Amino acid sequence: MIENKGFIDGNYKRISILSTIKLCARYSPMLFIACFALTVMDGLLVPLMLVIVGKFIDSAMTLASKEPQTYIMLKNAMFMGIGYFYMQFSEELKIYFYQLFEDALRNKLKPEIIKKQFSIDYLLFESTETQDLVLRVTNNIEKRITEILKWSNLIISIAIQVISILYVLYKYNWWIDVIFVFIIVPIIFLTFKGGKAIYESEKKVGFITRQMNYLSDVLSNREASAERTLFNYSDALNKRFKDAHLYRSNFNTKKLASETLRIKLCNIVMNIFIILIIVSLSRQVSNKLLSVGLFTSILGSMINLTKVISVQVSELFFEFSSHKEYVKDFKKFIALEENKEVFNDKYEKLKFESLHIKNLYFKYRDSKDYIIKGLNLYLEKGKSYSLVGLNGAGKTTLIKILVGLYRDFEGEILVNGKNIKLYSFNELGGMFSLVSQDYAKYYVSLKDNIAFGDHEADINSVIKNLELSDLINDLPKGENSYLGKIYDNGIDISGGQWQRIAIARALYKDDPFIILDEPTSSLSPTAESKIYSNFSKVAKDKTLLMISHRLGSTKISDEIIVLNCGTIAEQGSHEELMRKDNIYAKLFNKQREMYYE
């Protein structure tokens, strides 16, 4: 795995709640200090206000006496006003600061997270487990990390409040503190356990969320609109969406019921604790060991603290436990195997001489069965090859191995006599050009679709060879016209035209080895044959490997390779394989019969 030295200093093993908080300090140190300072001040203000309110009440009670303490009362009233004003101002200020924090993380952390997503090993990213993990971690990551900082600061603030009030209570009755500890420890333990259980349950509904997102996209996107109308499957998909939504809603309802029950139980326990405090401190007041003002102030603070503990602290540790589980997932996400070479803008152009595959075996990580089994193959520079076989024979898998997307294979592949694993991703990218069957459609200008931001690029020869001139002439701004309906002036083009553009990309890249993995399925057999014929002429000095289910195009190849059950079954020219009258001949004759019937 390539070491990551971005947002975690390359040491994913040390990721924890604390390191995540340090991450916040790194991205916005001034905001971090400001939030922490407000947190400490909020915590210290509670015991300070407890004393001030107590003195205010005591001084107010002297107004009817012969020696009223008017000055002391007014002074404490002023302090109380300042304190309450600060509380309101501090709350609004923290909301503003945390929003700024979230924006800072979105601007600085989000690009690194996206970069990490793009660099995840291709084979690993194909698994649904990895996709669910990525979805859980990256969905509103800046909000999640801001929440971790917010809840951490809240824990500090409440801890200061609790310790301060317990210190005051200890002076009058030490056993109240002991009872409080016996109450709060089980509450924290149960809420931590509950938070972990909820997060684990949320992981299970991750697939449901992904399914809902997909169904929502199918029900609303333009590409599926024609089939939605023709096949009238909107109601069926809508029902699936509703079922998935109902499942997730039921989960959220159970989650809410669990949280409500937990809060109610905490309320009952804390109210019993308040009654014990009232009974205990009332004796202190009657014995004149505690003033009425301080008693009233302590009682008010304890009632507020009870609300905080029964609702906020319970929720706080519940959420904190959930955040802890999230950080574990974040750690797994960072540890995912990656290939940073995908961010190198420049491919290293290399010459191609030969490709030699020796006893190749390959299977997917979650499978026991091999897709490729003992395959041996030799390809030469300047020749054109056709790779044919039934669905599931392993054609696309073999192609992904050749271009470096899959590297976890057994056996040996030599490119120009050198082990393919010794080539970097960029070196292979500068040698192999691939047009896959699931090619991408980029909703940018036609020129950018082919040349990717190279404004000085001359794409005329590519356009001419692939017969895209008519398309460009019909576009309002020619090659600078935007494709796709996401723009007001965007042009919608046919599937066949998209495929020609994808092939044009590969041809413009001008690599010595070009692979076409069934990219012409949207074209007619005649158009496909013509493109392959033109392609062979243009790429006559290149090595060409073509995959197509329509075998009429294979006749233009120098050599045909028949793949069956993960190994080479036949190899030779069209004439040679037809004379053998084996797999290829039977496939070819069967297709020919379909055209002549």
TrEMBL record:
<keyword id="KW-0547">Nucleotide-binding</keyword>
<feature type="domain" description="ABC transmembrane type-1">
    <location>
        <begin position="33"/>
        <end position="306"/>
    </location>
</feature>
<keyword id="KW-0812">Transmembrane</keyword>
<dbReference type="InterPro" id="IPR017871">
    <property type="entry name" value="ABC_transporter-like_CS"/>
</dbReference>
<dbReference type="Pfam" id="PF00005">
    <property type="entry name" value="ABC_tran"/>
</dbReference>
<keyword id="KW-0067">ATP-binding</keyword>
<feature type="domain" description="ABC transporter">
    <location>
        <begin position="355"/>
        <end position="590"/>
    </location>
</feature>
<feature type="transmembrane region" description="Helical">
    <location>
        <begin position="265"/>
        <end position="283"/>
    </location>
</feature>
<dbReference type="InterPro" id="IPR003439">
    <property type="entry name" value="ABC_transporter-like_ATP-bd"/>
</dbReference>
<dbReference type="InterPro" id="IPR027417">
    <property type="entry name" value="P-loop_NTPase"/>
</dbReference>
<feature type="transmembrane region" description="Helical">
    <location>
        <begin position="151"/>
        <end position="168"/>
    </location>
</feature>
<feature type="transmembrane region" description="Helical">
    <location>
        <begin position="69"/>
        <end position="87"/>
    </location>
</feature>
<keyword id="KW-0472">Membrane</keyword>
<dbReference type="Pfam" id="PF00664">
    <property type="entry name" value="ABC_membrane"/>
</dbReference>
<dbReference type="InterPro" id="IPR039421">
    <property type="entry name" value="Type_1_exporter"/>
</dbReference>
<keyword id="KW-1133">Transmembrane helix</keyword>
<protein>
    <submittedName>
        <fullName>ATP-binding cassette subfamily B protein</fullName>
    </submittedName>
</protein>
<feature type="transmembrane region" description="Helical">
    <location>
        <begin position="174"/>
        <end position="192"/>
    </location>
</feature>
<feature type="transmembrane region" description="Helical">
    <location>
        <begin position="31"/>
        <end position="57"/>
    </location>
</feature>
<dbReference type="InterPro" id="IPR003593">
    <property type="entry name" value="AAA+_ATPase"/>
</dbReference>
<dbReference type="InterPro" id="IPR036640">
    <property type="entry name" value="ABC1_TM_sf"/>
</dbReference>
<dbReference type="InterPro" id="IPR011527">
    <property type="entry name" value="ABC1_TM_dom"/>
</dbReference>
<dbReference type="GO" id="GO:0005524">
    <property type="term" value="F:ATP binding"/>
</dbReference>
